[in-house]
Design a protein that fits this description.
about 160 residues, mainly alpha, 7 helices, about 0% strand, elongated
Length: about 160
Amino acid sequence: MRKNRKYLLICLAVPLAVGGLSALLTRGGMERFKSLNKPPLTPPGWLFPVVWTILFLMMGAASYLVWKNGRPRRAARTALTLYGVQLAFNFLWSMLFFNMGLYLAAFFELIALWLLILLTAARFYRLSRGAGYLLLPYLLWVAFAGYLNFGVYLLN
């Protein structure tokens, strides 16, 4: 039981750490973001960290379910590797969009991220239905982020 709790905490901490590092490194870009023209339906700024925290916790829980229930182990390793790749793409998007102001490049990278999330969710679902379902809000949010990203590109 203790071992499972330890792995659950690690699984929750990994995406939160990625998100926290991303937030820390993009502070200057976030200030610039406030001055940009934004498309309709852009949520208030305070909502983004709330949503991302929830999504990161859901991602962590999903990865834990795959780690815990993933049989065969090779399939679980493949799914978790894909999960790690999509986390890296998530991090990269923030750097492209907020720090570098490369809105069109960030949009195309976001399309790749969305596809990686879809593939990860499908792999997770095969190993644990709950894990697959936990990634669906993330998939939807990134689709919405694509709309916002492309809108920022067009308006600026």
